[in-house]
Design brief:
The structure is a homodimer. Chain A has helices at residues 17-25, 33-49, 51-62, 76-85, 88-112, 148-161, 179-188, 198-207, 224-233, 258-269, 284-297, 304-314, 323-333, 345-348, 366-371, 407-423, 427-435; strands at residues 8-11, 73-74, 116-119, 125-132, 135-139, 165-169, 192-194, 217-219, 238-239, 247-252, 276-281, 316-319, 337-341, 357-360, 397-404. By secondary structure, chain A is α/β, with parallel strands linked by helices. In chain A, helix 7 (179-188) links the parallel strand 6 (165-169) and strand 7. Chain A starts with 7 loop residues before the first strand and ends with a helix. Chains A, B: Substrate binds at residues 246, 268, 271, 337, 370, 424, 429. Chains A, B: Pathway: Amino-acid biosynthesis; L-histidine biosynthesis; L-histidine from 5-phospho-alpha-D-ribose 1-diphosphate: step 9/9.
């Protein structure tokens, strides 16, 4: 059977564009009631029975037997041994990627994550103190898709933020451990690691068990059970976000080699049949050229079947009137990954309002950002870039307001506060302010 | 009947302290399954029927008849008229409070909310672009407890962030409008306002209707229906947080007049019978003095019944070994409001890791912070200050990573990325990087 990758060909000048475009974008995050109920049961069970419940589910779902939870903890020595076992090239790549990711997040902390304060003329001090979380949990998917890069992208910002303890959980179905994942935990400075996964691992982190310490926040991607569990424990602990399928949007002016762009579309499509790859360009001949490269390159790809289905079901090559219109459409989509594959990317960047990460110029393939450019690859999906941000140092910090009202300040502020408090019918508020006034 | 406010008297040296302390702190945010189901139904109905459903629920729950949704919109003229109708002292207090809140949040934006970038030696650009949300919704409770200060605290940071459009919803049961709330909307620069509330208002904002525009994020406190609706639309839109009962913790060294501290405990307790007021002090005689002031002042308070119940059910006066221990206990509680009522507050502040807002020194009553010191009064409750922050400009902004890899950078990064991508079995990722290498 010959595989065909046939992204939809749309044109903004077509009368049916709006409907076609909406149909292509449609993706429903509808939750499965059966999954929701099973997750609720697992959470309640772990909350009550602790380690015993985690052990039982790990045996049932991962086929992993253990006498007790301590047998499911990976020692630091085991993480280091995994690192030492890697080929030299992989070891170096991991370390270089970690170094770049660390230095980007250090810049991020410096730019937006430091405490600040100022004093009013009357001596009143106002500010905000920024402190790291005490302890966080990182969920790392195991089994089929094992992503060591995700270990770096979750653990390093936590480390840079100054988090005291980073607890990793990673399922190892049938006991199969991924050496790259363990090595990444070693490189990223994970404090403790357990070979547990699913809703039971989220529950262990959120509530704590005799063996697994309770954390303050849980980050990292997972399957439908993990996503449902994270959403359910939100409030007891912090969570990062609930990720949908991955997406790339390429804005092209036609100046980038067509095979580069085709491969960039593939690199999103190969993740998942639900992944979405979209190309916007004002040049119809260029869209044709990219389609030709898609056809030529597809048979060479090991994951061709996934790529073909993803591009055919959810991909699109869209002809726009001009680059300005392409930017406007991009803002409507608010993509996770946005490549500006243009000779003049800085002309278009100011027009782009909503995106998880913006990749400027032909040399900036999205895959460089996924692994080692420095910025985080955990990004808002499904249009949530309209209101949320890449995972960052700020996700592992919290802020406390600081207020020190001087005696002089209390005279001015006390009158304003009392007036408004009486207006709201809160007399104790008013009197607490009035007691600080000089008689 | 004589009201009695009898907070628990605990001592950290007592053998039963740990159990007594845990019992006092216990508060369950357990959700009511019946409310959950009704909220789910209301959301689905508004999503399908739009304005018609919102009108029907507003009529049913608020007793408010209207021919169509446009009749439930408050005009800018009406907001201004409400402001003009206020007594001069209230007008001035609102404006002065707004000015201080605005200037604090401008400082916050400058300190942590600006875009940044840097270039590597090889010319690669890395950074983050910070942009405001396009449109946000602010939920303002109506009816019994109407809080104009909450309008300022939600709308002003959004305004300072540069949000394009701020949509306020406020229920007006039986058509009763609160002039101070409308005036606060005028002062804070709300773009549009609708007299709707409950889950139906949250649904209208999250999904949009013919009349109410869809927003990107919803902030602001509300009752159990509003909280459940916000949690349910999380993901479709952003939300701020789910607030529990309000709390104050006072760390006292005994140097503040005891009646000031008693009134500060009242000012939290008067909010709600579930509110929690705790005093920690190493001086037993001072705890006695505060209890005497509680007994003396209680009969003078209009909201004495609520205060008495809140203090008796959930309040505590705790004797600690020393101030260090008091700080450690405070960190376990992670209170919403934390007063350091000490002669030397800067000695203790560095020991305080988790709190929504820290009020330093005897003159800094929490009520000054509630209204007009400048920092936000929307703060994390129920121990969530361990992982979350006051509402701020950052809640109305989002970040996009910026990456521009130079041709030289692509040579270094491409090799690292390809090595790791092959390790993860993602060949298109690897080849997208390799295509950018010079042959």
């Amino acid at each position: 059977m010959t595989l065909v990758a046939a992204p939809a060909r749309l044109s903004t000048q077509s009368a049916t564009f709006e409907a076609d475009f909406q149909a292509r974008l449609h993706w429903s995050a509808d939750t499965d009631a059966a999954i929701e109920q099973r997750v609720a049961d697992i959470l309640a069970d772990v909350q009550h029975r602790g380690d015993a419940a985690v052990l039982a589910y790990t045996q049932r779902f991962d086929g992993l037997e253990a006498a007790d939870m301590s047998a499911l903890e990976l020692s630091q020595a085991e993480l280091k041994a995994a690192f030492d076992s890697l080929p030299e090239a992989q070891r170096q790549a991991l370390e270089q990627a970690a170094r770049r990711v660390r230095s980007y997040h250090e810049a991020q902390k410096k730019a937006s994550g430091e405490s600040w304060s100022y004093r009013d003329e009357d001596g009143t001090l106002l500010g905000q103190k920024v402190t790291p979380l005490d302890r966080v949990g990182i969920y790392v998917p195991g089994g089929k898709a094992a992503y060591p890069s995700s270990v770096l992208m979750n653990a390093i910002p936590a480390h840079v933020a100054g988090v005291g303890e980073i607890i990793m959980v990673v399922p190892t179905p049938k006991g199969e451990k991924n050496a790259l994942v363990l090595a990444a935990a070693y490189v990223a400075g994970v404090s403790r690691a357990f070979t547990i996964g699913g809703a039971q691992a989220v529950a262990a982190l959120a509530y704590g068990t005799a063996t697994v310490p309770k954390v303050d926040k849980i980050t990292g991607p997972g399957n439908a059970y993990v996503a449902s569990a994270k959403k359910r424990v939100f409030g007891t602990v912090g969570i990062d976000m609930i990720a949908g399928p991955s997406e790339i949007l390429v804005l092209a002016d036609g100046s980038t080699p067509a095979d580069w762009v085709a491969m960039d579309l593939f690199s999103q499509a190969e993740h998942d049949e639900l992944a979405q790859s979209i190309l916007l360009c004002p040049d119809a001949a260029y869209l044709d050229a990219v389609q030709r490269e898609i056809d030529r390159l597809l048979p060479t790809m090991p994951r061709a079947a996934i790529i073909a289905k993803s591009l055919s079901d959810r991909g699109a090559l869209i002809l726009t009137r001009d680059m300005e219109e392409a930017c406007a459409i991009s803002n409507r989509i608010a993509p996770e990954h946005l490549e500006v594959s243009s000779r003049d990317p800085h002309r278009w960047e100011p027009l782009l309002k909503h995106a998880g990460a913006i990749f400027l110029g032909a040399f900036t393939s999205e895959s460089l950002g996924d692994y080692c450019a420095g910025p985080n690859h955990v990004l808002p999906t499904s249009g949530t870039a309209r209101f949320s941000s890449p995972l960052g140092v700020y996700d592992f910090q919290k802020r406390s307001s600081l207020i020190e009202v001087s005696e002089a300040g209390a005279q001015t502020l006390g009158r304003i506060a009392a007036e408004l408090a009486y207006g709201e019918g809160l007399q104790a508020h008013a009197q607490a302010a009035e007691m600080r006034l000089k008689r």
